[in-house]
Amino acid sequence: MRYLMMSKASATAPDEKLFAEMGAFIEELTAAGVLLATGGLAPEGIRLVSSGGELTITDGPFAETKEAVVGFALVEVRSKEEAVELGRRFRTIVGDGESVIQEVFGP
Amino acid sequence: MPVTDVHRSVDAIWRMESARIIAALARMVRDVGLAEELAQDALVAALEQWPGQGVPDNPGAWLMLVAKRRAVDRIRRDRRLAETGAELAREADRDAGPAGGWAPDTADEPADLLRLMFVSCHPVLPTESRVALTLRLLGGLTAAEIARAFLTVEPLVARRIATAKQTLADAGVAFELPDGAELADRLASVLEVVYLIFNEGYSATSGDDLMRPGLCLEALRLGRLLADAAPDEAEVHGLVALMEIQASRAAARTGPGGEPVPLHAQNRGRWDPLLIRRGFAAMLRARAAGGTAGPYVLQAAIAVCHAQASSAEETDWPRIAGLYEALVRLVPSPVVRLNQAVAVGMAAGPEAGLALTEELLADPALRDYHLLPGVRGDLLLRSGRREEARREFERAAALTKNAAERDFLLRRAASVPAGAPGTRDQGPTLGEAAQAFLAREELPPATARSYGQTLQRLRLALGDGLPVAAMTADQVAGVFRTAWGSAAAATWNRHRAAVGSFGAWAEVPHLDARLVRRRDNSSRRKGTSSAGAAGPGEPPGGSDVLRRALQESALRERALWTLLRESEAAVSAVLGLNVEDLDVADRRALPGTSGRHRVAWRSSAAALLAELVGARTSGPLFLSDRRPGPARLRTLGARDICPHTGRGRLSYERAEYLCKTTTGLTLRQLRATG
């Protein structure tokens, strides 16, 4: 089963050690065939809102930066616990902050 | 965290980390079974400590450290390895690093994992044990999970794994990477196991236990791991590419009713683009690794062609036909050749494809394979031969065991537009005539049963819709060659008589014109022995019975019997011979490769063996008539499967049966006549 983990901006700025640890972590998960896709997201998103059949498009960035998703990882695992465990290790590396994990259905 | 949650975490961590831990330990203690035991000890320690102390930041490193310490304790207890123990202890201490830090020495990991794969797929183990051990050691699956995935019971899998570990220990299998020519062989065995696991999952249908489709993911993980550990091997990347692309079609390959959806009819929008992209990337790595394309790279290249076409019409068939041509040279199995016929039919027109299927019609391995008439129906329809196409679809429907597929084929048969006027007025069809012929009241039940067998084979092979008036003696002879070519004379003659009777009744008198009556040894045996022709020491059947059997039976039987008589070796040793064991020049099997018994022969056997072996270079010397079904396949080792034809080794039971029915002697009695 696939899970998507989305992470919000963290309070602390990344340093060399974090980059090195994160690099090793990503490499390990890729080699094990667990990590299918990962990436960071640009803060200036584009918002599309449909209402009454009318579409409104607004360019970012938006005010509530702390709530914005800044990175994602798509993983292929055998159970929810495995996804949680991977998330736990990710959070240990990046420090304080928030991530959300959701199962992906389809395609 | 509540204890149950910790247990679930430990379980998940174990599945993710166990392979690496076992692999590292196996390098230290040189024993896979012991390595797994020590790793389990570490797992028990985690279950005891983590609920109280919390899960460590890097649980994998924690487990590895504890396991390595146990290994060192174990080694220290063994005095002969005291020095190695001290060195390994230093390694374990170094790995401990700063408390809880994320920087263990991981440089050896890919090599360790690769070694572990080579050991768990070692040729000394039967195939099913390789599969079970690989899933256990590298997939972290429990025996119960493996049993569920392979539709068997847990004790059997547990016993299989235990026996496999014991076999590895007894055989003194080194925990080393093989090199040179051996590496290629051993790698082929690993790839075979991984692809076998994948196909076991891929062939499962939507209603099955989820554990079976889970095998696809397990195989993909193993393949990706293998690609990371052996990045220079093109075939590894080829297998990964093949599996990624096949897995990308998982959602599209069954319809809402569970019926299979053929490739050309699949909704390509449901193919998983992520997996396709991964497949393409793996293919690029395979090309970068270089070398001549092996079977997996070729199959992956074919899969890539399909994946690149945005619709079925845009498929690059000429390229696929070319790839199949190369694949057939490497893997000349009938199924691959049938796929080649499909590709050629698309690339060069239906007639060219049909020509390739003609050769396959005579292959006993495809006798009951519904896809052969299915493919032929397609090709015939496209070349405008509608009546024949309809009959092939009906024949395919009669052969398939899958109800959804049967309905589909019957619908295809019914939807074939009627041919030119007059084609439907050729009198009764084979199906109708056979039923009427068998339903006659004057026919004794035993005779009806016997005739029924013959006609059933003709109906399956030629199709119920064929007008009896259009049947030819050549068609009948072709069916006989495929179905009963190697059968005993009595069987052949019984079927021949049935055709003669049916032909006379249906007013097609020459149906059996191309069937030569075979000499029936069993009926003559009484005559010769009562005439007292058998001299002292001669078999009860008389020497002329035997001589005739040795002249008139199929090549395989003649070769086997002559070899037995000339070598006087044990029957099981002779049946156990492999092509590569033969020393043709010295007329003997190389000592040591054929087990305990030396087998030597003389000129007659030598000539027959040369003919029997043909172009084969390896695999069992005496092969069964057909390729083994999936159930039988699981009981055969890789040594018992012919790499050229995919057929299994001839069994003692079958060989004994053929010998008895033809010569009246058991194989051992026959050997004594030499």
UniProtKB/TrEMBL annotation, chain A:
Residues 1-90 form the YCII-related domain. Signal peptide: none annotated. Gene3D superfamilies: Dimeric alpha+beta barrel. Pfam families: YCII. InterPro entries: Dimeric_a/b-barrel (IPR011008), YCII (IPR005545). Belongs to the YciI family. This is YciI family protein. It comes from Yinghuangia soli. The lineage of its organism: Bacteria, Bacillati, Actinomycetota, Actinomycetes, Kitasatosporales.
